[in-house]
Amino acid sequence: MGVTFQDWAALAGESDTSRTEWAAVVGAWAEPHRAYHSLTHLAAVLGLVDELAADAADPAAVALAGWYHDVAYDPQRSDNEQVSAERARIGLLGLVPDDVVVEVVRLVLLTTTHDPVADDANGAVLCDADLAVLAGPPASYAAYASAVREEYRHLDDATFTAGRTAVLEQLLALPALYRLPRTAALWTEPARANLTAELTLLRSRAAS
C-alpha cells in the first residue's frame, strides 16, 4: 500500500470530501520539519500494515490508523498522539462508519505507549508496523536515529540525550517490543541490539 489517493480511496471512498481529506493528510506528512516522521515513514508503515493484514481483526481500521498515527507531529509538543487522534476523528467523520472512526482513534492513541493488551490484534499490527524501523540493519537504524535527532535540532545535545535516553529505556522495558509471533521472532533480537547500542552511545556521551 502506498500514499496515493487510490490507496486512500480504497479505505475512505472517492468522494470530493474524501479527496480533500487525503490531500490534507498527505500535506501534513510532507511538512518540511519532518526528517523521519515523513511520507517515507507513512508509506513504510502502510506497507507493513498491508503485509500483516491477515493478523488484524479489522485491517481497514488499522490502515486508516496508519494514515493518521503521526499526522500531527510537532517535536516541541508532547501531545502529538492526542492531536493526531482528534484529527482522525474529525477528518473521517462521514467517510467511514462511526465504529470504524472510534477504532481508528483508539489505535492512534495506542501509539503513545506501543503497549497493546494481549488480545488486541489491531493494536499489535499497528504497533509492530510502527516500530519495525528499530529492527533494521545497523546502517538503516543509524540513519533513523540521525533523522530523529534532526527533528529535535531545536534542543541542545544534553537535553536531547536525556530525552532520547528515556525513550530508549521505555522501549527496552516494554513486555515485548513486537506482539505478533512472526514479527517477534524476526525483529526482536536486532531491535534490542540496535536500541542497546544507541543507549550505550548516549550514556557514554552523557558521562564524558
Properties at a glance:
208 residues; mainly alpha; Hypothetical protein af1432; 67% helix
Describe what you observe in this structure:
It is a single chain. The protein is mainly α. The protein has one domain: Hypothetical protein af1432, CATH 1.10.3210. It has ten helices and no strands. It has helices at 5-12, 16-29, 39-51, 59-68, 80-91, 98-110, 121-131, 138-151, 157-173, 181-207. Helix 1 packs across helix 2 and helix 4 crosses helix 7 (121-131). The model has no long low-confidence stretch (mean pLDDT 96).
Judged by helices, strands and strand pairing, the structural class is mainly alpha
Average pLDDT over all residues: 96
Q: In CATH terms, what is the architecture?
A: Orthogonal Bundle
**How many DSSP H or I helices?**
10
**Strand portion, in percent?**
under 5%
**Helix and strand string, N-terminal first?**
HHHHHHHHHH
Tally of DSSP β-strands: 0
Shape: globular
> Which blocks of ≥5 consecutive residues have pLDDT under 50?
none
Q: Helical proportion?
A: 55-70%
Q: What's the CATH C level?
A: Mainly Alpha
Instruction: Output the CATH topology.
Output: Hypothetical protein af1432
Gyration radius, rounded? 17 Å
Q: Measure the end-to-end span.
A: 45 Å
Give the tally of structural domains: 1
